[in-house]
Write a structure and sequence with these properties.
Length: 236
């Protein structure tokens, strides 16, 4: 049984249907990527998982429990944490204070301040700096570190490469090797198809709120992925 499973999920914003019958599974220790163009429903899917979209049908099961209708705070305490698009740091707080906000979940585990500083050594040097003064890449490191300090079992990452230089993206994605080795299960939302395929063991492509392609990225051709991404041809 998958650690996290989504079954025929439909999500609405008023009369607009953003997701239509999406089903997927995440195994313990697995990393999956969800790709798709702007408006495909990627962020909506993550928000539905963590309880931020309440107008929905279908089911979300986590660790054998149906959490479809749970409040967002209760879901967070069970061990599902999201790194939101745009990072959402507290600009008036220091790097370290932003990281410590992750301990509010009260979950014990291996991710401490020192563990985060070992993962991102630059943050140790910047620990007393206000987060508003950091570069975009440094802020993203803080956002990931804060999420890790909740000691999650499932880490959801929404567009963590958005707006960052290629070198910074490469540095941030390097950390996911250590994160994966720690046993975390990860869902990555990415528009960068090459990066998404390199980071994940399995990918899903969303097109207009539906899954247009899924599979092991090593077995999928770029032509198949492109057709599913842009809707230019039939995809399995």
């Amino acid at each position: 049984m998958p650690l996290l499973s989504i079954e025929k999920l439909e999500v609405f914003y008023g009369d607009f249907q953003a997701l239509a019958g999406v089903s997927l599974g995440l195994e313990s220790g697995q990393t999956i990527s969800i790709i798709g163009a702007n408006g495909a429903g990627k962020s909506t899917l993550l928000r539905a998982i963590v309880g931020l979209n309440t107008q929905k049908r279908g089911a979300v099961h986590y660790d054998g429990r149906d959490i479809t209708r749970w409040r967002a705070d209760l879901i967070a305490r069970t061990g599902i944490t999201m790194v939101p698009e745009g990072r959402r740091l507290f600009p008036s707080l220091s790097v370290e204070d932003n990281l410590l906000m992750g301990t509010a979940s009260g979950r014990p585990g291996p991710w401490t301040l020192e563990a985060v500083y070992d993962l991102f050594p630059r943050l140790r040097e910047l620990r007393q700096m206000l987060s508003a003064r950091l570069s975009g890449g440094q802020q993203q490191m803080v956002a990931i570190g804060r999420a890790l300090m909740t000691n999650p079992r499932v880490l959801l990452c929404d567009e963590i490469s958005l707006g960052l230089a290629p070198k910074v993206i490469a540095d941030i994605y390097q950390c996911f090797e250590a994160i994966r080795h720690s046993g975390l299960s990860v869902i990555l939302i990415e528009q960068n198809v090459v990066q998404a395929c390199a980071a994940a063991q399995y990918i899903y492509c969303l097109l207009e709120g539906r899954i247009s392609l899924q599979g092991d990225p090593k077995t999928l051709s770029m032509d198949e992925i492109s057709a599913a991404y842009f809707g230019t041809g039939a995809a399995a």
